[in-house]
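Entry:
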Amino acid sequence: MELRDSLSTMGFVLPSTTSYVVYKSSSTIKSKKYNKRNYSSVSRVQVGGSKISSWSSNRLLFQGKEINTTRKTTTKYWIITVSSQTALEEFVNCSGAKGVHESAGISRSKSKVLRNKGIERPVIIGVAADSGCGKSTFLRRVNEIFGTKVSQSHTPQGELVTVICLDDFHTLDRKGRAEKKVTALNPEANNFELMYQQIAALKEGYDIMKPIYNHQTGLIDPPELIQPNHIIVIEGLHPWYDARMKQLLDFTVYLDISDEVKVAWKIQRDMAERGHKLENILASIESRKPDFQQYIDPQKKDAVAVIQVLPTRLIPDDTEKKVLRVRLIQREGIQGFQSVYLYDEGSTIDWIPCGRKLTCSYPGIKFHYGPDNWYNHDVSVLEVDGNFEKLEELIYIESHLNNTSTKFYGEITQQLLRNSSAPGSNNGTGLFQVLTALKMRQLYEELTGKSIAPVLV
């Protein structure tokens, strides 16, 4: 019998596809906590020798996409996509898998992908920022630098890079947070124990079944399979809020957007793209501010690199926030990390580029470089105040920067031109995102002894 016909007899009307595993239960399961229910026995129909990736009691997940099903009977089935390489029985619970996360797990043995991909040591990178501060744009630039494409699934995964959003470790769904009157920034709404255990497992080379927070529905969905990769980026509100997480991270980046700029960006995004009312946007910002200041913002003091976006100093009393002053704050004395500098390392330099070589309309553009102190850490600061008009002219700026970790002359300019429409490409935001991504590539090569070929156009 065809799979579609088999599933139909079990009470489902499905689109045409063949990659499913179906679990049927007539009683309960005790020993496995892979669903919110408890079971004691289960019969499995497996198709084509394939394995399991995720499951649900009331809908079908196929290749990362939800497919509607119509139930005809009251019989309980768990329909499971079969794209992964690891069977359900190979996972065990960890102590952090509690409550809404009880179906999360860690594989019993090390992942086969370590051998298949030649991974000796996954490199773990943390990217911290508040919501709407440019994490997605920054990570697109990171993937460009590594020359890798990632899947358009809930958790982007590619040949080299996997990007895990830490919102997946929320313990409260949207409704639950509203009822308890807590924001997603509050530690009470996040499972740091599970986060630490699963990221540590990935670093040690184990597969995990990671929870999913569904941003569209605001609900906590069944978990998905995540396997080790060459580079694993964890991004979100609290990458190193837990001191144990800080020890797992090989590199840390904090995107620090000033309140004035953050409000302007959020109003522009939420009003223009999402149709939100101004008063609701401002109320949301104010409600999050105390938790942001207490739980999120303190992480920046320990970051290796901070990209700080501030209002311009070139326009007095600027209200539009279309011209920005952006600073790249770089920790000194970090093994494997060399700060980018302008002209002369360790000097203090204020530079207005030649107007014949760098086109600048009002209010112009100004660079600054010099040593500084950041939360009792020695740092060097590279700053750009103003906008670029012609990205191809950035080759002039690139020729005056040193320790950029580029692999050929013009690589920075090329990367900015490749993503010229991305937010921040015409100011220091895009420039410093590219420079930070290049530092990540260099760090990966030093830690693993492997070389990443540059992307050539």
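The chain has three domains: 3-81, 88-251, 304-448.
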